[in-house]
Amino acid sequence: MTTYGTILIPVPLEQAAPVLREVCTAGYATPAGPRFCLAHPDRFVDGNGVFALAGPISAELGVPVLAAFQYDGDRLELEVWRDGVRAHRYDSWPDRDDESANDAPLGADPAAFLDFATGPVDSHRLASALADTPHGGGTRFRRDRLRKTRPVGPAKHRAVVGTADGHAASSYWQRRAPPVVSRGATRPADEEPSVQAVTSGAASDG
After folding, report:
1. Which residues of 122-142 are buried (b: 16+ CB within 10 A; e: fewer)?
2. What Å distances lie between residue 131 and 89, 98, 188, CA to CA?
3. Does a structural domain hold residue 34?
4. Does residue 14 lie in a domain region?
5. DSSP letters for 99-153
6. Is the overall model pTM greater than 0.70, yes or no?
7. Which long-range contacts (CB under 8 A, 24 or more apart) does 92-98 make?
């Protein structure tokens, strides 16, 4: 399974896993430090994208969640959801397909993401990353010259979303739709779909 979408959830994986198995059709999740976890839904399943799932996950867990999607390295979208409602949206390149449009990011408000901090926040550095402006005297390249290759890059993604600092086992789940044939037996069509959870040391390709 390949995905560019991530949901950052400010609860441990063991607390989030039951909700993920209920809400998501397929994907995997990993711990991200002692108080966070990351969910990576399978985006090739209908209705299973990060922005479709962030609301239900936030409502079920009662915590804000941050959904992120990176488009082939040159555009990053973020959505903050609270209690099932989208509270904030960020787009690093909202007018990507419009050559004459202003390239300024949309929703570059550092305060919107403070719920997901794991420690002290350098507000100036975070604001620079969100606004796509140089920090510490760097040079900003003109976007009109780099439109086809302009990368968001992992540094910006880490600055905004954070990274998993643990390498504990990941949890992979997949909800099976009836009928399912398993070892020669067919599950009745009216039986409730089940959730398969597998714990492994690495992400699983599906």
Report:
1. eeeebebbbebeeeeeeeeee
2. 13, 19, 53
3. yes
4. yes
5. TTS--PPB---GGGGGGG-SS---HHHHHHHHHT--SSSPPPPPGGGSTTT---H
6. no
7. 92/130, 92/132, 92/152, 92/156, 93/150
- Order of strands, sheet of 85-91, starting from the edge strand that comes earlier in the sequence: 85-91, 76-82, 65-70, 5-9, 37-41, 26-31, 170-175, 195-200
Enclosing domain of residue 28: 5-200
Question: CA of 104: how far to CAs of 8, 71, 91, 128, 137, in Å?
Answer: 25, 17, 9, 12, 19
Query: Tens place of pLDDT for every residue, the chain, 206 residues?
Result: 556 899 999 999 999 999 999 999 999 999 998 899 999 999 899 999 999 999 999 999 999 999 999 987 678 999 999 999 999 999 998 877 676 667 789 999 999 999 999 899 999 999 999 998 876 545 444 344 333 333 444 444 444 444 333 334 455 555 543 333 333 333 344 433 333 343 333 344 44
* Cβ contacts of 178 within 8 Å, gap of 6 or more: 187, 188, 189, 190, 191, 193
In a domain? residue 206: no
Domain count, the chain: 1
**205 found inside a domain:** no
